[in-house]
Amino acid sequence: MENAPPALDGVEKIRRAAADLFGERGFDAVSIAHIAERAGSSKANIFHHFGSKEALYFAVLREAVDRSTDHFRDAMRAELDPSQRVERAIRGSLTVLFEDPERSRLIFREIMESGPCRAEALANEVFGDDFIALTRLFADVQAGDEAGQGMSPSFLAHVLLSSNVMLFHCHQVLRHLPGGGYADEQERYITMLRDVLLRSMRAQKETNA
Amino acid sequence: MENAPPALDGVEKIRRAAADLFGERGFDAVSIAHIAERAGSSKANIFHHFGSKEALYFAVLREAVDRSTDHFRDAMRAELDPSQRVERAIRGSLTVLFEDPERSRLIFREIMESGPCRAEALANEVFGDDFIALTRLFADVQAGDEAGQGMSPSFLAHVLLSSNVMLFHCHQVLRHLPGGGYADEQERYITMLRDVLLRSMRAQKETNA
DNA sequence: GACTCCGCTGACCAATCGATCAGTCAGCCC
DNA sequence: GGGCTGACTGATCGATTGGTCAGCGGAGTC
Question: A124 contacts in B (CB within 8 Å)?
Fold first, then answer.
């Protein structure tokens, strides 16, 4: 009977408690004692398994990053018409962000804090694949549409991800801004962002001053 | 001779040191001892003037927020054609973000960390005015353009701010992504974002499935 | 000179931090 | 049984944390 939930051995419990707490409050605000308490373990045991607080943090971060890219890749496999493909990409990215908020916060904090040294590694190992996939999607959609290109696919990926990430991190603030009701209406939000992206691709060089 | 630089009294030195350090590393990673050292003062003196670490943090945060809104408001006063007005709004927001990076990080961290309780206060006191101004700008531009409305001005403000904030916080990562060269070319970035926003406003209901 | 006020300091506090220690206990191999 | 491994613990380390307190020294005031 005990096959479905794998009984969660000690190490995994520590990992999950650490992921939750680091995601919620950040590296410095969380102590090993907190993690040990939530994991139902002892401080010494954490050092036994992970060596140091920093090593635990990076272990948790790496795991979060790996799981994130898997989910995102799944969300973009379908072959539909442009409107539906873009919509699906928005929804997929949004799902990844919201289905495990602690993980998302953990990763974004790492991006913010990373100096020039670690930024390149992050770009290659962590976000590169997702960004490329999204860029390809926009390039495909533009190529299949005779109207006009003229808009960089990678920049459209930037706009999509920016908007979603901002919605995720700031939606408690956004919902209280005048006209910020979209923060609580996911479908309306997705439709609006989809329209912004599709219109950007289709309209031609009419905006040149 | 000592009139132009106001000699920076002790309290102001503390405030600046705290703003720099809190912006760089966040609340928990910075100790009063660090701040005292950078300010050339003593721990006890900081408590003498501010009472507690939290009070110092909030004082610094409030000051950062006030200065931020002032700058932003200045950047949007001009009356030009739609393309130039949108471009100016993008540039203004970008300038505010990059001209004092520590301040910007401080504020954004507060948005991320703020629970539902403090989020409403932040929305009203801090970002409300800027967001309203930006929303009005898009509403104006759309009204003056006969082509079509159909796109929520507040959502366009969201897209503009999201894209800029993301560029600011992640540009060390973005520049290393394939096609992410725009992260280092501000003028190209501004042009692309302007086009995305203008096209979104002008194109009509052609995207409805 | 004696007085107060105020910006400021060094010494100090209890609490907590990350980390280490010796040692316990259960399981496994021979 | 004996030898060994690895998960785990309570006690404890030195360092650092946010915060307190008595007091110093200079500027003003009578």
Answer: 176
